[in-house]
Amino acid sequence: MENVSKSKIMQAQSRFDFLGQITVRSQFGGYGLLANGIMFAVVSEGELYLRANDLIENFFRNRGMANLIYAKRGLPVLLRYYRVDAFLWDDDLALRHFATLAYQGAKSEVLSKKCPPARLKDLPNLSASLERLLWKAGITSVAALRLEGAKRCYLKLRTLRCSLGFNVLLALAGAISGHHYAVLPLVMRSELMEWFEMHIRPADIIITQYETA
User: Would you say 174 and 127 are in contact if contact means Cβ atoms under 8 Å apart?
Assistant: First the structure.
């Protein structure tokens, strides 16, 4: 299995060199892959796993990607790394996109730990007025915002101001991931739009019909 992992590492270094120099270190009983010093993937028992964060984890799950399971003190622990199956591995364009998402997410987490913002309004996209609204919704810190996630925060804000539109959801997602909302990765934006159209748009239509009746 060691030779299988080393072969996968060599292939991954070639496939992901567009991210920068790919280095390797021991991690989780396997091998961590780092681009520019940032770990974005793991190779374990010949399989490649991509790192997820709050914004892209559901996207990985919805695609059916399985978690890396790490035995810690004899107990299985699900890690936020998701397996690249044979179909994704053979789709070079999709794999490059997924790897980019994993790398960008890992990079934003590293930067946020080095320079943690003092207030919500210090995050991308969040104005002082939106910060005040978040406070009213019980979300008073950057840590609380990240713990809740963009969708749950948005739902709480909607209970206070039902007129908040899709751009506010994008703003929250961008604040968590470290992106300006206008340049969120397409996959993330599409997933948020799908969620919005399924859970929010129908309620807006009902409210509009009620108000005009």
Answer: no
Two structure tokens written together for 9:
């590492």
pTM: 0.56
For 60-88, the pLDDT digits (tens) are 888 889 999 887 777 788 888 999 999 99
Would you say 34 and 87 are in contact if contact means Cβ atoms under 8 Å apart?
no
Nearest alpha-carbon partner for 59 in 37, 34, 88: 88
Query: Which structure tokens are listed for 202?
Result: 């129908």
- Listed residue (59, 61, 22) closest to 40, CA to CA: 22
Q: Which two tokens stand for residue 20?
A: 């920068």
177's enclosing H/E stretch is helix 166-177
| Helix, strand, coil % over all residues of the chain, rounded to 5 | 55, 20, 25
**Greatest CA separation for the chain:** 70
Mean pLDDT of the chain: 86
